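Notebook B, p. 112. Complex prediction, attempt 2.
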Amino acid sequence: MGPDIVMTAGENRIPRREVLRQLALALTAAGAGAFNVEAARVVHALAGEARAQAGGYSPVALDAHQFLTVARLAELIVPADEGGGSAVDAGAPEFIDLLCSQNSDLLRTYADGLAWLDAATRRAHDRTFVEASDAQQRELLDGLVAAERGESGSTDLRAGVGFFNWIRMMTVDAYYTSPIGIADVGFRGNRTLGAYQTPREAIEFVTRRADGLGL
Amino acid sequence: MPSVQPRTQVHDVLVIGSGAGGATVAHVLTGLGIHVTLLEAGPMLDPLAEFKEHRWPYDYDHRGAEEGGRRYFGDGKPFGFFTTTSGGWELDGEPYTVADDTEDFWWFRSRIVGGRTNHYGRISLRFSDYDFKPRDRDGLGWNWPIDYEDIAPYYDKAETFIGVVGSQEGIRSAPDGIFHDPPPPKAHELLIERASRRMGIPCIPNRRAVITRSINGRPACHYCGQCGRGCVSGANYSASQTQIFPALETGRLEVIDLAMARAITTDESGKVDGVVYVDKRTGQERRVRCRVLVLAASACESARLLLNSKTAEHSDGVANSSGVVGRYLMDTVGFDIGGTVPALEGLPRYNSDGAGGAHLYMPWWGWERQEALGFPRGYHIEIGGGYGMPGVGSFAGSARRAGYGTAIKEQARRDYGARVSFAGRGEMIPNEGSFCEIDPDVVDRHGIPVLRFHFQWSDHERRQARHMRETFRELITLMGGEPQSPGRRDASGISIGGSIIHEVGTARMGNDPGTSALNGFCQAHDPRNLFVCDAASFVSNPDKNPTLTINALAWRASEYLAEAMRSGEL
């Protein structure tokens, strides 16, 4: 499994997210300064656990909070379903962190984008993105997609679309270049064969479709 | 090893360049017992170490996005990380320039043993009989000094040796050859074939330089579809593996790699007597003497070398008394459209890798009704589709359409294998506005003056590209699909000059020394001990990818050259 302890659909992890949220809410009530320190401590602890979960991977370019946020975004962008695991299972956060470690422009894109995301979430819900509820996180991404499609009047969201495109593109690439993503779409090639044949069922399928089109 | 060669050593045949032309010359001449010395501007190729055949994207931490995600910034390896060692659009320290009258021109150069044949598409099409006499057909351009009958035996020899899949069809625009059995059509190609035939366009087995039975110690294709990565077992044609390596084993070929030719030298009679090159390992200039020189550095690189070789006897450059060297530069007219075809959604998944590239293609079908079509000359259609190995960028479009979440996965599953594409590859008419010349102000890292390109498409090509667009749209629409608009193109929809990597024509052959640089045997009118065996000799650029014709012309020139050496003429 990947490093997304706080956020996956795995039931044993949900309470952890609840703990964090309750903690965050309690600390918010206690005062902004205390909140920041305590939340940072919790996030740090969770990131440590994330490294353990990821087989010891320590982010080299992103800090722990950024890495957790990337992991949560990757989980939302390509979640697990019956066809395969998630982008986190496919190593998307590590992929992104690695490339950021080799490219300062890319790292800046992520640092700025993740800061924008936290700021936008704070404005809407008074917490960072990873602290927000599942519904609040999806609401933000829904807004970004709407803005991308020109269906939103919010100039505030439009500012985040560029970053969203980056992380979506790289998350999707990480997933479909992994063994689970390749299996998900059903690629059967990259083999050594003695002869090439197109299977009869594929030929019959196409013939039916051609007939249906009147070709 | 220090240079122990006596200064007086004269090499029998010196070849510059190890691509389709130079390697064919090396193979044929060494086979005839002649010693060949070959200069290559790049390093020796090591297939086992360099080819990425059968590797998965996840074998690399960057998955194919390359270090720092270079590919995302448009700065990745041409044709992708997994493509074999070849070269690029830009080479460090080796610029070229584009003249102010020209919108853009791209020049792909290889610096490696085998040249661009290491990565090329391997489409191997004979020119038609009418392709050698284009001016007789429509009054445009010029005729070749040779006929189809002159080159046909050399197409036979080239196909037999390198190995080409194909089928006997009897179509005039696409003469049949000596073929290995072609692989059967892929599933999506059967749907394309039905749409094609509905439009009256022939759709036949593709002709590619891949072997489906073992020849010359090369095992048959194992159907991984990864020709562009380089085939470690050598089941496809590459000049390096198919010709250079076996020629080295004869003991009659010496390859001097990392040797960038600077200039040709001539003696007091005007005959070529050697070449000055830069040894890239040391940066030092060296001189090699020869009896016969064969240029095969690529059409434009050979023209550059000729133009950079101004001697007392050849004041405008060697072999350029006619002034045609550099002129009549042509590329192929390129126009591509893809589309998603819902009828292919739900097709049972299968291994569609095949023999690399498409298993079918569409040869030109309109040669008898050019006037009605409203443009001269023709094009063939290359088709794409199937279940390619997922890679960086494969599902970016699916992701954009879906937004985020499980919708992306569902969209990707629908889209995978449901996309087809058509690439038109058409004939360009040579024109006065398309040429390369020496830029008087720019030199490369070795101090060698560089090429400046002028390039113009004419209305002939623009009308042809419009016809491609309408044809491809109709094909996709007939299949129930939605044609997508083409990508990086100029306003007319045509490819950028040079971008199809079929540059030809810069030292054309002809019977008249006043209007051509070479005779029909690729031999310079003056000096006679110089041959040009790359695509510089082309008089026209038919819609047939040039490599097979480079092979055949080089083979024919080599036999002629060997006989002239034997008879003492050279």
